[in-house]
Amino acid sequence: METGTLISLAIYFIAMVGIGVYAYRQNEETCSGYLLGGRKLSAPVVALSAGASDMSGWMLLGIPGAMYLSGASSLWIAFGLCIGAWLNYIIVAPRLRVFTELAKDAITLPDYFENRFYDSSRSLRIIASIVIIIFFTIYTSAGIAAGGKLFESSFGYNYEVGLYITAGVVVCYTLFGGFMAVSLTDFVQGIIMFIALVMVPTVVVFELGGINNTIDILAETDSNLLSLFIDASTGATVTFVGVVSLMSWGLGYFGQPHIIVRFMAISSIKEMPAARRIGMSWMIVSIFGAAATGLFGLAYMNSIGQSLDDPETIFITLSQLLFHPLIGGFLLAAILAAIMSTISSQLLVTSSSLTRDVYVTFIDQQCSEPKQVVIGRICVALVAVVAIALAYDKDSSILSLVSNAWAGFGAAFGPLVLFSLLWKDMSRIAAIGGIVSGAVTVLVWIYAPLGENGGSIYPDLYAIIPGFFVSSLVIVAVSLLKPEKDDNIRLLFSSFVDKYAMESKK
């Protein structure tokens, strides 16, 4: 590896650990301080932290790879994600910030569900925490595996060494600095990703003599590359179901714990409009920069007469071909930033669920705040160890499960979050039914051998659509058929409506 690349990566790693140390010294030794940053994050930190934790390595690898192969028809997923993220900021973000504080200062999503519905049986907490712990441990392992493969393919290190480097750096700043460290490092990582995704396609266009020449090269290669309605890799027309499936990724935002927890941590809802503007500007530029990297990268590779065995490496290839090793190292750090920002968020959400929803709830209900912080740090380390173990077999099928985790979380939690914030007559039983039905529908849709030749039911339709629909239907039907008898639930909702109206006017 070039010396300049090593220097850039070393600076990046030192900066991440340094931020963790800073956050450790600034944090309050309370559960709220460690797991939610004391609800005092600024709008820019919330916005870029939410964006960076959302856009993992697939932003710099997956989207460019899809555009390289299929052309502009892959943009539908970008449209869907942008719309979903915007609606999340408009509908969920301000309401969840107010309601979680009112609901006994809930600091985790299962906390909120239990307090919102006065669930003395703790069924909601148990079911929600099981979903979070299982899916996020697998999700985390996939991120660590991606780091291992990056170190192996780009840096020449052994795959297992890459696992330990990736996990080690993330665990260092997450374990000591908690939510504040995760959010601050996400902020810095978001800036790195933004710069990289503007720089790479811009330099490619300059190398090709301007945007018109770039488009001409693409048109000469295959005119279908510029069509939103034709998949250039197959020449097939993109169907209505295909467009809906790609855009339906946006539905997942309402139920992603590692994203919506950021909204709970902002200092006040007065900061939310600024967070929305910053977050959406970052997302739109970054996601379309990633798309441009793949499409323009194809034009560049054709212009120099080279091809790629793996289209998902186009960002890495361009960083090595077009930039000085020092800058190339910075661009590779952007991929690590995307991977690590998501791993750290998932580690902390899983740790918070193990601490608050398992240990404190069922083992030590009188656990002091400082002890909860210690338990949280232990859980971060334990989850990381399990995730590394799962990622050890780089040929395992773990990564294939992750492509479905977004659908699982979106269907299990998305309708529940929306209805809990918007409908006063939603019942506790309906909340439980919504989680279970959404998760089960996604799993059956993907894995049950009910389709042709023992395959999935209808693979062309993304599983989040039937999952989200069934969960919503169950929530509405059960709430109407078995109305909630506990008046405290409606009183709490009325208090929330009044407080939200008051906070919104400030």
UniProtKB/TrEMBL annotation:
Its main location: membrane. This is Sodium/proline symporter. It is a multi-pass membrane protein. It catalyses: L-proline(in) + Na(+)(in) = L-proline(out) + Na(+)(out). GO terms for biological process: proline transport. GO terms for molecular function: L-proline transmembrane transporter activity; proline:sodium symporter activity; sodium ion binding. Belongs to the sodium:solute symporter (SSF) (TC 2.A.21) family. It comes from Brumicola pallidula DSM 14239 = ACAM 615. InterPro entries: Na/Glc_symporter_sf, Na/Pro_symporter, Na/solute_symporter, Na/solute_symporter_CS, Sodium:Solute_Symporter. PANTHER family: SODIUM/PROLINE SYMPORTER-RELATED (PTHR48086), SODIUM_PROLINE SYMPORTER (PTHR48086:SF3). Catalyzes the sodium-dependent uptake of extracellular L-proline.
